[in-house]
Design brief:
323 residues, mainly alpha
Amino acid sequence: MSGPPGRAASGAGAAGGAGAGQAPRARGVDGQVLARGGRLASYANFVKVAHTVFSLPFAFVGVAAASLVHPVTLRTVALVVVAFGAARFAAMGFNRIADRGLDALNPRTAARELPARRLTVAEAWALVVVMAALFVVAAGFLNPLCLALSPVALLWITAYSYAKRFTSLSHLWLGLGMAIAPVGGYLAVTGAWSNPWWVIVLLALVVTCWGGGFDVLYSLQDEQFDREHGLRSLTVRLGPSGAIGVARALHAAAACALIGFGLAAGFGRWYFAGVVAAAALLVWEHRLVKVGDYSRLDAAFFSMNGIISAAVMVGALVDVVLR
Protein backbone atom coordinates (compact mmCIF):
# COMPACT_ATOMS: atom_id res chain seq x y z
CA MET A 1 0.00 0.00 0.00
CA SER A 2 0.90 3.61 -0.15
CA GLY A 3 0.10 6.66 1.80
CA PRO A 4 -2.90 6.98 4.01
CA PRO A 5 -6.10 5.90 2.34
CA GLY A 6 -7.37 9.31 3.33
CA ARG A 7 -8.93 10.08 6.66
CA ALA A 8 -12.42 11.44 6.35
CA ALA A 9 -12.00 13.21 9.63
CA SER A 10 -8.44 12.76 10.77
CA GLY A 11 -6.22 14.15 8.06
CA ALA A 12 -3.34 16.48 7.16
CA GLY A 13 -3.38 20.15 6.67
CA ALA A 14 -4.18 23.28 8.58
CA ALA A 15 -7.11 23.31 10.89
CA GLY A 16 -7.33 23.97 14.55
CA GLY A 17 -8.87 22.10 17.39
CA ALA A 18 -11.78 22.67 19.68
CA GLY A 19 -11.33 24.49 22.89
CA ALA A 20 -9.48 27.39 24.41
CA GLY A 21 -6.08 28.20 23.00
CA GLN A 22 -6.62 26.22 19.81
CA ALA A 23 -6.70 27.62 16.32
CA PRO A 24 -10.06 28.25 14.66
CA ARG A 25 -11.30 25.75 12.16
CA ALA A 26 -9.86 26.05 8.68
CA ARG A 27 -10.71 24.26 5.51
CA GLY A 28 -7.36 22.50 5.43
CA VAL A 29 -5.84 20.59 2.55
CA ASP A 30 -6.53 17.20 1.05
CA GLY A 31 -3.16 16.21 -0.36
CA GLN A 32 -1.99 16.28 -3.94
CA VAL A 33 -4.63 16.10 -6.67
CA LEU A 34 -4.64 16.36 -10.44
CA ALA A 35 -5.83 19.83 -11.36
CA ARG A 36 -7.25 19.04 -14.79
CA GLY A 37 -10.72 17.63 -15.17
CA GLY A 38 -11.96 14.62 -17.09
CA ARG A 39 -13.03 11.13 -16.15
CA LEU A 40 -9.51 9.76 -15.91
CA ALA A 41 -8.47 12.59 -13.58
CA SER A 42 -11.51 11.89 -11.39
CA TYR A 43 -10.54 8.24 -11.02
CA ALA A 44 -6.90 9.20 -10.35
CA ASN A 45 -7.91 11.69 -7.67
CA PHE A 46 -10.42 9.23 -6.21
CA VAL A 47 -7.64 6.76 -5.38
CA LYS A 48 -4.99 9.46 -4.82
CA VAL A 49 -2.57 8.10 -7.41
CA ALA A 50 0.01 10.70 -6.38
CA HIS A 51 0.22 9.15 -2.91
CA THR A 52 1.68 5.98 -4.42
CA VAL A 53 5.10 7.56 -3.76
CA PHE A 54 4.72 6.71 -0.07
CA SER A 55 4.69 2.92 0.04
CA LEU A 56 5.77 1.72 -3.41
CA PRO A 57 9.44 2.58 -2.75
CA PHE A 58 9.35 0.42 0.36
CA ALA A 59 7.93 -2.46 -1.68
CA PHE A 60 11.10 -2.18 -3.77
CA VAL A 61 13.17 -2.13 -0.57
CA GLY A 62 11.58 -5.49 0.26
CA VAL A 63 12.44 -6.76 -3.21
CA ALA A 64 16.03 -5.49 -2.85
CA ALA A 65 16.42 -7.25 0.51
CA ALA A 66 15.05 -10.48 -0.94
CA SER A 67 17.48 -10.23 -3.87
CA LEU A 68 20.34 -10.72 -1.41
CA VAL A 69 19.13 -14.28 -0.78
CA HIS A 70 17.15 -15.15 -3.92
CA PRO A 71 17.36 -14.20 -7.63
CA VAL A 72 14.85 -11.62 -8.86
CA THR A 73 13.19 -11.65 -12.30
CA LEU A 74 11.57 -8.81 -14.21
CA ARG A 75 8.34 -10.82 -14.18
CA THR A 76 8.33 -10.79 -10.39
CA VAL A 77 9.03 -7.06 -10.23
CA ALA A 78 6.19 -6.37 -12.66
CA LEU A 79 3.78 -8.51 -10.65
CA VAL A 80 4.82 -6.72 -7.44
CA VAL A 81 3.93 -3.38 -9.04
CA VAL A 82 0.58 -4.70 -10.27
CA ALA A 83 -0.28 -6.29 -6.92
CA PHE A 84 0.76 -3.19 -5.00
CA GLY A 85 -1.22 -0.82 -7.20
CA ALA A 86 -4.32 -3.01 -7.20
CA ALA A 87 -4.32 -3.46 -3.42
CA ARG A 88 -3.77 0.22 -2.81
CA PHE A 89 -6.51 1.32 -5.19
CA ALA A 90 -8.93 -1.21 -3.69
CA ALA A 91 -8.19 0.05 -0.18
CA MET A 92 -8.45 3.71 -1.13
CA GLY A 93 -11.68 3.17 -3.04
CA PHE A 94 -13.23 1.26 -0.15
CA ASN A 95 -12.15 4.02 2.24
CA ARG A 96 -13.86 6.64 0.08
CA ILE A 97 -17.07 4.59 -0.01
CA ALA A 98 -17.06 3.96 3.75
CA ASP A 99 -16.36 7.62 4.57
CA ARG A 100 -18.46 9.35 1.94
CA GLY A 101 -20.98 10.59 4.51
CA LEU A 102 -18.28 12.07 6.73
CA ASP A 103 -16.43 13.46 3.73
CA ALA A 104 -19.54 15.39 2.72
CA LEU A 105 -19.68 17.05 6.16
CA ASN A 106 -16.01 17.98 6.41
CA PRO A 107 -15.08 21.19 4.53
CA ARG A 108 -11.63 19.75 3.79
CA THR A 109 -12.99 16.64 2.07
CA ALA A 110 -16.35 17.78 0.71
CA ALA A 111 -14.86 18.23 -2.77
CA ARG A 112 -13.82 14.58 -3.05
CA GLU A 113 -15.26 12.63 -5.95
CA LEU A 114 -18.17 10.88 -4.19
CA PRO A 115 -19.49 13.85 -2.15
CA ALA A 116 -19.06 16.11 -5.19
CA ARG A 117 -20.79 13.47 -7.38
CA ARG A 118 -18.04 13.37 -9.96
CA LEU A 119 -18.18 9.60 -9.52
CA THR A 120 -21.10 7.42 -8.46
CA VAL A 121 -21.03 4.89 -5.63
CA ALA A 122 -21.64 2.15 -8.21
CA GLU A 123 -18.54 3.24 -10.13
CA ALA A 124 -16.56 3.27 -6.90
CA TRP A 125 -17.67 -0.25 -5.99
CA ALA A 126 -16.82 -1.49 -9.48
CA LEU A 127 -13.30 -0.11 -9.11
CA VAL A 128 -12.86 -1.70 -5.68
CA VAL A 129 -14.07 -5.13 -6.83
CA VAL A 130 -11.93 -5.13 -9.98
CA MET A 131 -8.82 -3.98 -8.12
CA ALA A 132 -9.32 -6.51 -5.31
CA ALA A 133 -9.68 -9.32 -7.86
CA LEU A 134 -6.61 -8.11 -9.75
CA PHE A 135 -4.61 -8.12 -6.51
CA VAL A 136 -5.54 -11.72 -5.74
CA VAL A 137 -4.78 -12.81 -9.31
CA ALA A 138 -1.37 -11.08 -9.25
CA ALA A 139 -0.61 -12.68 -5.87
CA GLY A 140 -1.51 -16.06 -7.33
CA PHE A 141 0.91 -15.55 -10.21
CA LEU A 142 3.67 -14.75 -7.72
CA ASN A 143 3.65 -17.81 -5.47
CA PRO A 144 1.37 -19.89 -3.19
CA LEU A 145 2.33 -17.98 -0.03
CA CYS A 146 1.38 -14.62 -1.54
CA LEU A 147 -1.90 -16.08 -2.77
CA ALA A 148 -2.71 -17.52 0.67
CA LEU A 149 -2.00 -14.20 2.39
CA SER A 150 -3.80 -11.98 -0.12
CA PRO A 151 -7.27 -12.23 1.50
CA VAL A 152 -5.74 -11.39 4.90
CA ALA A 153 -4.05 -8.35 3.42
CA LEU A 154 -7.27 -7.17 1.76
CA LEU A 155 -9.24 -7.60 4.96
CA TRP A 156 -6.72 -5.57 6.97
CA ILE A 157 -6.38 -2.67 4.56
CA THR A 158 -10.12 -2.31 3.98
CA ALA A 159 -11.08 -2.68 7.65
CA TYR A 160 -8.84 0.30 8.41
CA SER A 161 -11.60 2.53 7.03
CA TYR A 162 -13.63 1.87 10.21
CA ALA A 163 -10.76 1.95 12.72
CA LYS A 164 -11.09 5.61 13.65
CA ARG A 165 -14.65 4.91 14.75
CA PHE A 166 -13.52 2.76 17.68
CA THR A 167 -9.79 3.24 18.40
CA SER A 168 -7.38 6.12 18.83
CA LEU A 169 -4.67 3.86 17.41
CA SER A 170 -6.04 3.90 13.87
CA HIS A 171 -2.75 5.52 12.84
CA LEU A 172 -0.88 2.32 13.65
CA TRP A 173 -3.54 0.25 11.89
CA LEU A 174 -2.83 2.30 8.79
CA GLY A 175 0.94 2.02 9.30
CA LEU A 176 0.71 -1.76 9.53
CA GLY A 177 -1.42 -1.77 6.39
CA MET A 178 1.28 0.20 4.59
CA ALA A 179 3.86 -2.28 5.91
CA ILE A 180 2.22 -5.01 3.84
CA ALA A 181 3.95 -3.46 0.80
CA PRO A 182 7.58 -4.18 1.78
CA VAL A 183 6.74 -7.53 3.36
CA GLY A 184 4.84 -8.46 0.22
CA GLY A 185 7.78 -7.35 -1.93
CA TYR A 186 10.08 -9.67 0.00
CA LEU A 187 7.70 -12.63 -0.05
CA ALA A 188 7.01 -12.15 -3.76
CA VAL A 189 10.67 -12.89 -4.48
CA THR A 190 11.43 -15.59 -1.94
CA GLY A 191 8.07 -17.31 -1.54
CA ALA A 192 8.98 -17.86 2.10
CA TRP A 193 9.43 -15.92 5.33
CA SER A 194 12.86 -14.45 6.05
CA ASN A 195 15.58 -16.34 7.89
CA PRO A 196 16.00 -15.17 10.60
CA TRP A 197 12.29 -14.45 10.92
CA TRP A 198 12.72 -10.99 12.39
CA VAL A 199 14.42 -9.48 9.30
CA ILE A 200 11.18 -8.57 7.54
CA VAL A 201 9.50 -7.95 10.90
CA LEU A 202 11.98 -5.11 11.35
CA LEU A 203 11.14 -3.85 7.86
CA ALA A 204 7.44 -3.96 8.72
CA LEU A 205 8.20 -2.07 11.94
CA VAL A 206 9.96 0.64 9.93
CA VAL A 207 6.93 1.33 7.76
CA THR A 208 4.41 0.90 10.58
CA CYS A 209 6.14 3.53 12.71
CA TRP A 210 6.93 5.83 9.79
CA GLY A 211 3.43 5.68 8.29
CA GLY A 212 1.72 5.78 11.67
CA GLY A 213 3.80 8.78 12.68
CA PHE A 214 2.99 10.90 9.68
CA ASP A 215 -0.67 9.89 9.89
CA VAL A 216 -0.69 11.29 13.44
CA LEU A 217 0.57 14.57 12.00
CA TYR A 218 -2.01 14.23 9.23
CA SER A 219 -4.77 14.10 11.85
CA LEU A 220 -3.92 17.46 13.42
CA GLN A 221 -6.06 19.58 11.13
CA ASP A 222 -9.28 17.68 11.82
CA GLU A 223 -9.24 17.69 15.60
CA GLN A 224 -12.39 19.80 15.94
CA PHE A 225 -14.31 17.85 13.30
CA ASP A 226 -13.31 14.54 14.87
CA ARG A 227 -14.43 15.64 18.33
CA GLU A 228 -17.77 16.85 17.03
CA HIS A 229 -18.47 13.60 15.18
CA GLY A 230 -17.20 11.11 17.75
CA LEU A 231 -14.18 10.00 15.72
CA ARG A 232 -11.00 8.92 17.44
CA SER A 233 -7.36 9.78 16.90
CA LEU A 234 -4.33 10.44 19.05
CA THR A 235 -4.84 14.14 18.38
CA VAL A 236 -8.30 13.91 19.93
CA ARG A 237 -7.08 11.77 22.82
CA LEU A 238 -3.83 13.58 23.67
CA GLY A 239 -4.27 17.00 22.12
CA PRO A 240 -2.00 18.43 19.41
CA SER A 241 1.10 18.70 21.59
CA GLY A 242 0.85 15.12 22.82
CA ALA A 243 0.09 13.82 19.33
CA ILE A 244 3.14 15.56 17.87
CA GLY A 245 5.24 14.01 20.64
CA VAL A 246 3.95 10.55 19.74
CA ALA A 247 4.70 11.19 16.06
CA ARG A 248 8.28 12.13 16.96
CA ALA A 249 8.68 8.97 19.02
CA LEU A 250 7.30 6.81 16.21
CA HIS A 251 9.66 8.37 13.68
CA ALA A 252 12.62 7.89 16.01
CA ALA A 253 11.63 4.22 16.32
CA ALA A 254 11.37 3.99 12.52
CA ALA A 255 14.91 5.36 12.13
CA CYS A 256 16.25 2.82 14.63
CA ALA A 257 14.39 0.00 12.90
CA LEU A 258 15.85 1.10 9.54
CA ILE A 259 19.33 0.64 10.98
CA GLY A 260 18.47 -2.72 12.53
CA PHE A 261 16.87 -3.98 9.33
CA GLY A 262 19.85 -2.91 7.22
CA LEU A 263 22.28 -4.75 9.49
CA ALA A 264 20.09 -7.87 9.66
CA ALA A 265 19.48 -7.99 5.90
CA GLY A 266 23.16 -7.48 5.06
CA PHE A 267 23.01 -4.10 3.32
CA GLY A 268 26.12 -1.96 2.97
CA ARG A 269 27.17 1.68 2.98
CA TRP A 270 24.88 2.88 0.18
CA TYR A 271 21.81 1.68 2.04
CA PHE A 272 22.93 3.40 5.21
CA ALA A 273 23.61 6.60 3.27
CA GLY A 274 19.94 6.49 2.29
CA VAL A 275 18.98 5.92 5.92
CA VAL A 276 21.00 8.95 7.04
CA ALA A 277 19.26 11.07 4.41
CA ALA A 278 15.85 9.76 5.46
CA ALA A 279 16.56 10.43 9.15
CA ALA A 280 17.66 13.99 8.38
CA LEU A 281 14.46 14.56 6.40
CA LEU A 282 12.37 13.21 9.28
CA VAL A 283 13.99 15.74 11.60
CA TRP A 284 13.28 18.51 9.10
CA GLU A 285 9.69 17.31 8.67
CA HIS A 286 9.05 17.84 12.36
CA ARG A 287 10.44 21.35 12.14
CA LEU A 288 7.64 22.15 9.71
CA VAL A 289 4.86 21.26 12.16
CA LYS A 290 4.15 23.23 15.31
CA VAL A 291 1.15 23.28 17.60
CA GLY A 292 -1.34 25.79 16.25
CA ASP A 293 0.54 26.32 12.99
CA TYR A 294 -0.21 23.66 10.40
CA SER A 295 0.32 25.88 7.37
CA ARG A 296 3.23 23.74 6.16
CA LEU A 297 1.70 20.39 7.03
CA ASP A 298 0.93 19.54 3.41
CA ALA A 299 4.62 19.89 2.57
CA ALA A 300 5.55 17.78 5.58
CA PHE A 301 2.98 15.13 4.68
CA PHE A 302 3.38 14.80 0.94
CA SER A 303 6.71 16.19 -0.20
CA MET A 304 8.89 15.09 2.70
CA ASN A 305 7.48 11.59 3.08
CA GLY A 306 7.69 10.93 -0.64
CA ILE A 307 11.35 11.92 -0.59
CA ILE A 308 12.03 9.91 2.57
CA SER A 309 10.75 6.64 1.11
CA ALA A 310 12.58 7.34 -2.15
CA ALA A 311 15.85 7.97 -0.30
CA VAL A 312 15.67 4.58 1.43
CA MET A 313 14.72 2.84 -1.82
CA VAL A 314 17.53 4.41 -3.82
CA GLY A 315 20.04 3.55 -1.13
CA ALA A 316 18.90 -0.08 -1.05
CA LEU A 317 18.84 -0.49 -4.84
CA VAL A 318 22.23 1.14 -5.37
CA ASP A 319 23.66 -1.03 -2.63
CA VAL A 320 22.40 -4.18 -4.41
CA VAL A 321 23.46 -3.08 -7.92
CA LEU A 322 26.98 -2.06 -6.92
CA ARG A 323 27.84 -5.29 -5.14
